[in-house]
Specification:
By secondary structure, this protein is of the alpha/beta class. It contains 15 helices and 14 strands. The strands form 3 sheets. Strands 1-7-6-5-4-2-3 form a 7-stranded mixed sheet, sandwiched between helices. The protein has a 5-stranded mixed sheet with strand order 8-9-12-11-10, with helices on one face. Strands 13-14 form a two-stranded antiparallel ribbon. Helix 3 packs parallel to helix 10 and helix 13 crosses helix 15. It is globular. The N and C termini lie far apart (about 65 Å). The site of ligand LKTG3HHF has 8 residues, from loops.
């Protein structure tokens, strides 16, 4: 099969049918590959809003929407194989198209897509060997913490959890045995900011072979490109902003070093966690609207963070000047994202707020078009045991808001009603304010 599709059509085709289908060989030979090679990385770079939408494919029918190659296996041109694809676990044209599109958007030389964000982390951790040391944060998504705990208990991996917002705490545990540094920024759910560039440089100095991996789920490639700051691997849960509608699970990995890309591809093919053709298609569709969704989500989140702060709540959001690492975040990222958390001072009050909200759905996850409210200690981070949560000063009353694209006034009104109904605020002559236990220390 021709990669360029430039071979002459088969001479056997009748002239009338050739007129009707000028680019198609009716005997089935030398058809251009479809839809690969998709969005070329080396071509002209447009602004991100354009790049998100713009894709090219060599589809034989010039389909506007890239076809779903819902096929487990592919016929080969000879007994020795020879086809570009042989089996969907190893590769699939729809998945390839998505991977090339994402590589372009993520400023990467290669992207790989798998069945969930946790599958992406699982693939990364397959690079570890017993005795290897991993340095990571003390505030991490619960599932990440769980997988690292499993590996330290059962896989002989030594995991150091430190406060990654403090570079000196990281350098204290870095050594030539550190083969991986795993960073989340902003962290989920305490919204702590980590200096990717400084930590990556320190890690590479301690061990030049150390792989600095960044979970970019909270930001998406629209707002942050960790590879440009010195990371070796960036991964994201595609379940969140990249797809944006909570209708699929996906994970994305991206690298600049093609040798690392090959090492990551191996476990994907070997274990079969590559993203299915249909979910690849859905994710490609979703990513095209990333900018319009994120712009709206972010401006809503800013208004909601300001609303809560102005009424005396301790709010964690990097779009607020009161965030202790406001400057650091803005030196790395192009926006604050749409996840924020706040405290009420009382677990029962927090529970009542969550249960009183109507527009805000009580759900885990984030990055979707509709707004969500949750209590991380009981939901997304329940897999971190209570003792560890206490050691890491994880507030049990924390409420996480994952802001969607709805009308900001409606979201604020619903939240305000929930705050009043739950007794989280006291009404004054001037309006209302958080009960004293909830105010910023
Ligand atoms: C920061 C972060 N990373 C990774 C994941 C894992 O993604 P997934 O649910 O797609 O496995 C999640 C949530 O699940 C998350 O919040
Ligand atoms: N029951 C799930 C919880 C998923 S939490 C999803 C998301 N990352 C979030 O932070 O809300 C589990 O055990 O993983």
């Amino acid at each position: 099969m021709s990669a360029s599709g430039s071979e002459a059509p088969n001479a056997g085709a009748s002239s009338s049918s050739k007129k009707q289908f000028p680019n198609i060989d009716l005997e089935g030979h030398n058809l251009p590959p479809s839809p690969a090679p998709s969005s070329p990385h080396a071509g002209r770079r447009y602004n991100i809003a354009t790049e998100l939408v713009f894709t090219e494919s060599n589809d034989q029918y010039n389909a506007s929407s890239v076809p779903i190659y819902q096929s487990a296996t592919f016929k080969q041109t000879s007994g020795g194989g020879g086809g570009e694809y042989d089996y969907t676990r190893s590769g699939n044209p729809t998945r390839t198209h998505l991977e090339r599109h994402l590589a372009k958007i993520m400023s990467a030389q290669r992207a790989l897509v798998v069945s969930s964000g946790m599958a992406a982390l699982d693939v990364i951790t397959r690079l570890l060997r017993p005795g290897d040391e991993v340095v990571t944060g003390d505030d991490l998504y619960g599932g990440t913490n769980r997988l690292l705990k499993y590996l330290s208990t059962n896989g002989g991996i030594i995991v150091h959890h430190v406060d990654t917002t403090d570079v000196s705490k990281v350098t204290e545990v870095l050594s030539s045995k550190t083969t991986m540094v795993l960073i989340e920024t902003p962290t989920n759910p305490l919204i702590k900011i980590v200096d990717i560039g400084t930590i990556a440089a320190a890690a590479h100095e301690a061990n030049p072979a150390c792989l600095v991996s960044v979970d970019n789920t909270m930001m998406s490639p629209l707002l942050l490109n960790p590879l440009d700051l010195g990371a070796d691997i960036v991964y994201e849960s595609g379940t969140k902003y990249l797809s944006g509608h909570h209708d699929l699970m996906a994970g994305v990995l991206a690298v600049n070093d093609l040798a690392v890309g090959e090492r990551l591809y191996f476990p994907i093919n070997a274990s079969g966690c590559g993203l299915s053709p249909f979910d690849s298609w859905l994710l490609l569709r979703g990513v095209k609207t990333l900018k319009v969704r994120m712009d709206q989500q972010q401006s809503n989140a800013q208004r909601i963070a300001e609303f809560l702060e102005s009424h005396g709540f301790k709010v964690r959001y990097p779009g607020l000047r009161s965030h202790p690492q406001y400057e650091l975040h803005n030196s790395m990222a192009r926006g604050a994202g749409a996840v924020l958390s706040f405290e009420t001072g009382d677990v029962n009050v927090s529970e009542r707020i969550v249960e009183s909200a109507k527009i805000w759905a009580i759900s885990v996850s984030f990055g979707c078009v509709n707004s969500l409210i949750s209590m991380p200690c009981r939901m997304s981070h329940a897999s971190i045991d209570a003792k560890t949560r206490a050691e890491r000063q994880f507030p049990e009353d924390l409420i996480r808001l994952c802001v969607g694209i709805e009308d900001a006034d409606d979201l604020i009104e619903d939240l305000q009603r929930a705050l009043v109904q739950s007794g989280a605020v006291k009404v004054t002559l001037d309006g209302f304010e958080a009960n004293s236990t909830a105010t910023t220390a």
